[in-house]
Amino acid sequence: IKIMVYELRDDERNVFENLAQELHVEYTFSHKMLNMETIPLAQGCQGICILGISKISADILRQMKEMKISYLSTRSVGFNNIDMEAARKLNIRVSNADYGPDGVADYTLMLILMSLRKYKQAMFRGNVNDYSLKGLQGKEMKDMTVGIIGTGRIGARVIDFLSGFGCRVLAYDPYPQEKVKGKATYTDLETLYEESDIISLHVPLMEQTFRMINRTSLSKMKNGVIVVNCSRGELMNIPDVIEGIETEKIGALALDVFENEDGIYHFDRRTDIIINRDMAYIRQFPNVIMTQHMAFYTENAVKSMVSCGVKNLVSFIKE
Ligand code: NAD
Known about the structure:
This protein is about 35% helix and about 15% strand. The protein is α/β, with parallel strands linked by helices. The chain has a 7-stranded parallel sheet with strand order 8-7-6-9-10-11-12, with helices on both faces. A 5-stranded parallel sheet has the order 2-1-3-4-5, sandwiched between helices. Strand 6 (about 145-150), helix 6 (about 155-160) and strand 7 (about 170) form a beta-alpha-beta unit. Helix 1 (about 15-25) packs parallel to helix 13 and helix 4 (about 100-115) crosses helix 6. Nicotinamide-adenine-dinucleotide binds next to helix 6.
């Protein structure tokens, strides 16, 4: 079995190496995206594995078919970058990857605590040898009402973790889960907005959730609310969120995701890339934490992603 790996990151190399030996797979790799320019690299391979940033158009899929490659696996969970309709028509089988929710849930808790205890401000002061406490008073979790929007795999895990803090937890999800009910109180979205001191988003990006954090929803929230988004950038209307920070409606904001993330992947996820004017502006606030879509990024997750990417291709090819 011979496969072509695109978008290889250095941290994946060892995992690929070990798996290839174990499964007797030969692989060629490129750090580049899969596109019309790079597709010839896959000549002679039976399957292609991408990380999930490359935009896979019908043209690329047709070219794959012409090269007699009928299998495509992504090492990411989402596959909205692939023209699935075209893949179906061309009879190209596509698979995605899976990893546990714990990494993202851990990270969410970290962002909540960092926001509540003004960690960014404290760290900046430490960097200039200023160890004063002025303005750094925090609050305790046990006194907080935390609102979790979306109680799927990640949201439910965040709620598990929160149950140790003794805070009140509200949840909203059109499909409430039994196992969450003992640890959180399901409410409607309005009540969650009105009563939460901290709001964390764990919903997929869909028509109903697109820019759900906007001037209208913010106006319903408490003054000084902490908002955390480890889900998708498009869930927030950033100009409205900026207004929320400037008017102090938002007390602290922590973002692991933002719109138009594609740009940063070309630069190997360096933080100092200015993504767009709004994001460059927003990250300067002392009460705003912004990271580079890394909540998922743990040793375990990378192993699972690579393993799914390779094993799915192998089982397709062997069928
Ligand atoms: P999931 O599908 O298990 O859960 C999503 C939940 O949202 C479901 O329970 C669903 O019923 C609920 N939901 C759907 N529409 C809703 C709405 N309008 N309002 C409230 N809830 C709604 O997904 P998951 O694995 O928990 O992941 C959640 C999101 O986290 C993903 O969609 C993805 O965007 C994001 N994510 C981010 C990272 C990262 O590194 N930052 C990593 C993985 C996933």
